[in-house]
Each structure stands twice: as structure tokens, then as C-alpha cells.
């Protein structure tokens, strides 16, 4: 899933992922931003272990 830079709307490159946060950097204007994944993964949501 490609994210667009909120500043210049170019296609941003994913730099790293930490937990639910995915970090992006725009190669065009060098703007760095973060996208937070809001929903849990399917495996986690469907697991029947008592978390």
C-alpha cells in the first residue's frame, strides 16, 4: 500500500515499521511522516488465547 506525501502529494517511500506505526519519507520534498495502523491484525483479533 503506497502512501502519498501530505505535503507535495508525491509517492512516499516506507522507511521503517515499529509496532503499529509505519514511517515514510518523501523522496521529492524530503518530508518525513508516520502512519498509524488502527486495526489489529486478523490473527490477533481471531485468536482465542486470553489476552
UniProtKB/TrEMBL annotation:
The name of this protein is Uncharacterized protein
Amino acid at each position: 500500500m503506497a502512501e502519498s506525501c501530505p505535503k507535495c502529494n508525491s509517492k512516499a517511500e516506507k522507511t521503517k515499521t515499529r509496532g503499529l506505526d509505519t514511517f515514510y519519507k518523501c523522496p521529492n520534498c524530503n518530508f518525513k511522516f508516520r502512519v498509524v495502523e488502527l486495526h489489529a491484525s486478523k490473527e490477533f483479533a481471531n485468536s482465542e488465547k486470553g489476552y
